[in-house]
Design brief:
about 325 residues; mainly alpha; about 80% helix; 11 helices
């Protein structure tokens, strides 16, 4: 290679290196006001999470926020129409509470409108393909679009039921451990409120979050029994309702709470074991299908094929 070219590359590399060194010097980086105040604010108590809550309707991105503001009147009007057509606001609010979401039925109807719009877009794409491929009347493409809208609206409703069921299954799996922790705390001398505070501080999960909500209601002035009844009302689990009733009776009448909690945990574990046995029984029946229709014919073929081959060879 030409020495002048090598010299040019070497000079370029030296210049880039010196520029990076110059940019990385501490003198080039001035401390901002946040950097100066941060060491003095590390030990400050955390602010309330309520102060950091984002106002409703404000998006994380500016464009999305503007789009939401522009389309909100249309979505609100369509949500009211969906509400007038479908109704069942109490059922929707109940499932929203079971799913751990705020019981905002209007917001859910707006989400149904958005899902319906997505279904309409998919229906339009499919209807356009059908109409361009076959032509003819526009009745069939129109029916496809209407079906797409209906499927989107119904799919959001079914997805809410799925979310509620999944959350309740997580709560049911967490329940025996939480109940035994409460029993240990009560047996160690803690009261009902103290045991709940200790368990909520040490635990994470859906049931722990519900117990924290009960404690928040109790600190806000509601009786502990009323707060616990709210926990039973927000979920659709019979075992959790029995657990709440047992705790309420123990708190109000002074019965041994630790024994009640241990018995509730044992009952839930037995119910889970029975459910696993039932699922195993259904899976065992389902496993017979590949055995009968796939494995058994292949086994019979392996057993019969040598005889057929030998007969053909003799013939």
């Amino acid at each position: 290679m030409n020495p002048s070219v090598l010299g040019a590359f070497a000079g370029l590399g030296l210049g880039v290196g010196l520029s990076l060194v110059w940019l990385g010097l501490p003198l080039r980086h001035r401390l901002t006001l946040d950097d100066r105040l941060l060491p003095y604010l590390l030990d400050a108590p955390r602010p309330s999470r309520l102060l950091g809550a984002r106002p409703p309707g404000v998006g994380a991105l500016g464009g999305a926020g503007v789009l939401a503001v522009l389309t909100r009147p249309l979505v609100t009007d369509l949500a009211r129409r969906v509400e007038s057509l479908l109704g069942r606001s109490s059922s929707v609010a109940r499932r929203l509470a079971r799913a751990g979401k705020p019981p905002d039925v209007d917001r859910f109807r707006a989400e149904q409108v958005v899902w319906g719009a997505v279904g309409m877009a998919a229906g339009l794409a499919l209807a356009s393909a059908v109409w361009l491929g076959q032509g003819g009347s526009v009745v069939r493409p129109l029916l496809i679009v209407v079906c797409g809208v209906a499927v989107g609206v119904v799919a959001r409703d079914q997805w809410l039921s799925h979310e509620a069921n999944v959350r309740e299954q997580r709560i049911l799996r967490e329940f025996p451990t939480i109940a035994e922790l409460l029993a240990l705390a009560v047996a160690a001398g803690e009261g009902a409120v103290g045991a709940l505070e200790r368990v909520c501080r040490l635990s994470h999960g859906e049931l722990a979050a519900e117990l924290r909500r009960c404690l928040a209601d109790a600190r806000a002035g509601a009786p502990l029994s009323t707060a616990l009844q709210g926990l039973g009302d927000r979920t659709g689990l019979v075992s959790l309702s029995r657990f709440v009733d047992g705790m309420v009776v123990a708190v109000e009448r002074g019965t041994p709470l630790a024994d009640v909690l241990r018995a509730q945990a044992h009952d839930v574990r037995e119910a889970g074991r029975r459910a696993v046995m039932e699922v195993g029984g259904t899976k065992e029946i389902a496993m017979m299908v590949p055995v009968v229709f796939l494995v058994l014919p292949v086994t019979v073929l392996f057993a019969i094929f040598p005889g057929f081959a030998f007969l053909q060879f003799e013939i």
